[in-house]
Design brief:
It is a single chain. With 127 residues, the protein is α+β, with helices and mostly antiparallel strands. The chain has one domain (2-126): TATA-Binding Protein (2-Layer Sandwich), CATH 3.30.310.70. The protein is 47% helix and 28% strand. The chain contains five helices and five strands. It has helices at residues 11-24, 35-41, 58-67, 95-102, 106-126; strands spanning 2-7, 28-34, 50-56, 77-84, 87-93. Strands 1-5-4-3-2 form a five-stranded antiparallel beta sheet. The longest helix is centred in the C-terminal third of the chain and has 21 residues, at 106-126. It is globular, with a radius of gyration of 15 Å.
């Protein structure tokens, strides 16, 4: 269900690397949620770091939405950079598992497979 790799980069270095790698793989960063800072800003003592990057390949997203508009709720893909006990990790929930659990449309299965291959490539390059 998950694809997670550990990196020797710092949290900040990994965040910068994801930004660049996403763009070089024909995806775009739509938004970044800094969950660590958000929680600390609410007065919660949260020791780890966590940023969630909402990423999208517009051509693939259009294929998904054309096949089933209800799947807008599963978009965009999310790639997370987080720390866990002093280690920096990069991960995602596998897009193929998400979309195929919501639809058995063969078109969507193929799109999900392509997106998963691309997003895993992004993570591995950013690592």
């Amino acid at each position: 269900m998950y694809y997670i790799v550990e990196t020797k980069k710092t949290f900040e270095q990994a965040s910068e690397s994801i930004e660049l790698t996403v763009k070089s793989n024909e995806f775009g960063v739509l938004h970044v949620h800094d969950l660590g800072n958000t929680l600390r800003g609410k007065g919660i003592k949260f020791k780890e770091e966590c940023r969630v990057f909402e990423v999208c390949n517009p051509l693939q997203a259009a294929k998904v939405l054309e096949a089933d508009m209800n799947l807008n709720m599963a978009l965009p893909c999310r790639i997370s950079i987080f720390t866990d006990k002093g280690k920096t990790k990069i991960g995602l929930i596998r897009p193929q598992q998400i979309l195929t659990s919501l639809s058995d449309d063969p078109t969507l299965v193929e799109v999900a497979k392509e997106v998963e291959i691309s997003t895993i490539k992004i993570i591995n390059e950013a690592k």
